[in-house]
Structures are given as structure tokens and as C-alpha cells.
Amino acid sequence: MIYDDDFEIELGRAYVLREGTDVTIAACGLEVTQALEAAELLAAQNINAEVIDVSSIKPIDEETLYKSVEKTGCIVSAEEHSIIGGLGGAIAEFLSENIPTPLVRVGVKDKFGTSGELSDLLPAYELDAAAIVEAVRKVRALAHLG
Asked: What number is the average pLDDT over the span 50-59?
């Protein structure tokens, strides 16, 4: 559980769940938990990740995203959805027109899926915290941040 039972999500608003300065991780749905776990793993490596719950993809909270990537200089999107036409795509469109920023997308690659236990599917489809950590390494290299 990320929020208390009485918390009401506002349409069009993203929520910064963890402040950070080295990379932004914008996640939705199930991937929010994985993003928070990845942030803990990254903290052990002295990488301070900002984690944003983008609970509303349309409309997307441009102000929160802008402020975060302006601070961190790079972003990873994480979603348990196809990387085509989802959160990562919406972020890419926003960034390209407003604040060009290195982006790496974590999500389901363009391939057919299978059924199974969540604990097996997350790593199989590279949707777990380890995949987010790897995406952070990649995006920081693209941004020449280490």
C-alpha cells in the first residue's frame, strides 16, 4: 500500500513519493512499488532517486515532471504496460517539446505475453526493481552523469 485508505487521487496530478537529485523515476500502477524498491537499491550505491507516482497519464502532470527533470537531468519511466503508447510515450512527447531530457523506458517490450505468478513475470519481462536500477544506470550514462 502506497497511500492511506482515505487518500483520494486527483486526476491530472502526479505525486512525488521520494525526493531525489540524481535521477527521476516516474512510475504508474504496480511499478510504483518497484520504483520505490529500486530507489532503495540505488541509495545504497549513492544515487539519490526521485520517485513520482504518475497515477494520471492523461492528462499528465507536466509541472511535476518538468520540475523533477530540471533538477535531476534524466528520467526513467516504469509501467506494467507496453512501452508503446503508455506512460513512457507520454513522457517522451512532453519532454521532446518542453525540456529535452534523456529517457529510458521500463515496460513490456513489443512481444507477446504469457501468464504466471507475478513474482515470476516481473523479472521475466524486466519490470522488477532490478530492471529499473539497470535503466537508471543506462539513462545516467546517456546524460553523462555516471
From this structure: 95
Q: What is the CATH number of the domain that holds 123?
A: 3.40.50.920
pTM, 2 dp = 0.95
With cell 529500486, the residue in question is 38
Q: Is residue 126 part of a domain?
A: yes
The residue type of 39 is A
Residue numbers of the domain that contains 87: 15-142
The DSSP element (H or E) to which 67 belongs, if any, is: helix 62-72
CA atoms lying within 13 Å on the CB side of residue 5:
0
The 15-18 sheet, strands edge to edge: 15-18, 49-53, 23-27, 75-82, 103-108
